[in-house]
Design goal:
Elements: H1 14-24, H2 31-90, H3 99-121, H4 128-139
């Protein structure tokens, strides 16, 4: 099935006309095909740029929000894991608390708070380094 085509007459600069003639001289190509492909590519690129201009800022803002939420979830996961590790390894089956046990508990709690403070002060996205550092400190 043949598509409907409209005839256009326009002027091209000599250097573009020479390049078009050279390209259209290749087997299987015509000036119409080359110009159609070039215009199609130009229109699609322009449409993509319009979409980027319209939605780029919104998407960038959403990506930033997701990254902040992800950092917060990572932070909370680390804190919870550290708390559970301290709780399970340090407080399992203690006798009734005397003054010495209370003093040790207070020291352990202060250590926990210090480690959490250090984690919160670190720059985002240290990943494995953050996890291994907290593991080393909890073993001391």
């Amino acid at each position: 099935m043949q598509t409907k085509k409209t005839r256009h007459q326009f002027y091209l600069p000599d250097h573009l006309s020479a390049r078009l003639d050279a390209l259209a001289a290749q087997p299987g190509l015509s000036k119409t095909a080359v110009l159609s492909d070039a215009l199609t590519a130009w229109f699609e690129q322009r449409e993509a740029a319009d979409i980027d201009a319209r939605f780029g800022k919104v998407l960038a803002r959403q990506v930033g929000a997701v990254e902040r939420i992800e950092r917060q979830v990572d932070y909370l996961t680390e804190v919870l894991g550290l708390f559970v590790r301290f709780h399970l390894t340090q407080t399992a089956h203690h006798p009734p608390f005397d003054k010495e046990s209370q003093r040790l508990g207070q020291i352990r709690y202060e250590k926990f708070v210090r480690i959490v403070g250090q984690m919160a002060a670190r720059p985002a996205r240290e990943g494995e380094a953050k996890s291994s550092q907290s593991s080393k400190e909890s073993k001391r």
